[in-house]
Design brief:
This protein is an alpha/beta fold. The chain has one domain: Rossmann fold. A 5-stranded parallel β-sheet has the order 2-1-3-4-5, sandwiched between helices. Helix 1 links the parallel strand 1 and strand 2. Helix 1 packs across helix 5 and helix 2 packs across helix 3. The longest helix is centred in the C-terminal third of the chain and has 24 residues. The radius of gyration is 18 Å and the shape is globular. The protein starts with a strand and ends with a helix.
Length: about 210
């Protein structure tokens, strides 16, 4: 069974991720996501890389939450400033696609205001830590909110490069998932069907 990675900030979209997983299972795909596998804290990056590499595509659900952040001293994953694990999951697929003949599908979903959110927007990215004052926690939340808004705006500005959808409620979200499953089936079929004998030989030579 082929696998598709579901990428989102869990605190914001855990319910929608469950809906996505059910839709993928119904479409005979195996859903994969970060909380679905065991890893040592020091190996999260490599665990994600391994799991995403095994998938034929990614469903990247983009909201208002920034989520857990990569260490700022990681030069590979954080070369140009702050980045969250969820943001990196999409960047990793893009990097893999640049280096591979067989491309992974990228599906972006921007849920509307009436889609289910598991955490209120004003509580997203709030850090509860005994060593932080309320003012310091507020500053961290505001900075992460700024980073996510910037990331979201950049993705939306580049939306013509992706397959993207903007469902306004849960019903539309489920319909989007049905569409993704159908289009991914078609994409997989097209990927193994050569356009000509010359194309077939070319693809075969790249696999040898």
């Amino acid at each position: 069974m082929k696998k598709i990675f579901i990428s989102c900030v869990s605190s914001e979209f855990k319910t929608l991720r469950i809906d996505a997983a059910l839709a993928l299972k119904g479409g005979l795909y195996e859903p994969v996501f970060q909380e679905d596998f065991n890893f040592e804290p020091t190996s999260l990056k490599e665990s994600l890389r391994k799991k995403i590499k095994s998938c034929v595509g990614i469903i990247h659900i983009v909201g208002d939450g920034y989520g857990a952040e990569f260490p700022t001293n990681d030069p590979e994953c954080n070369p140009n400033g702050n980045i969250s694990y969820t943001q990196w999951e999409l960047r990793l697929v893009e990097e893999m696609n640049r280096k591979s003949f067989r491309k992974k599908g990228i599906w972006l979903i921007f849920p509307g205001d009436d889609c289910t959110r598991d955490t209120a927007i004003e509580r997203l990215d709030w850090v509860d830590h005994p060593d932080l004052t309320h003012a310091e926690a507020t500053q961290i939340q505001e900075w992460r909110r700024h980073l996510q808004i910037t990331y979201k705006d950049e993705l939306y500005a580049q939306r013509s490069q992706y397959a993207y959808r903007t469902p306004q409620n849960d019903r539309e979200f489920k319909k989007v998932l049905e569409t993704i499953v159908k289009k991914e089936h078609s994409r997989q079929v097209k990927a193994v069907m050569p356009d000509s004998m010359g194309d077939f030989r070319l693809r075969l030579s790249r696999l040898m």
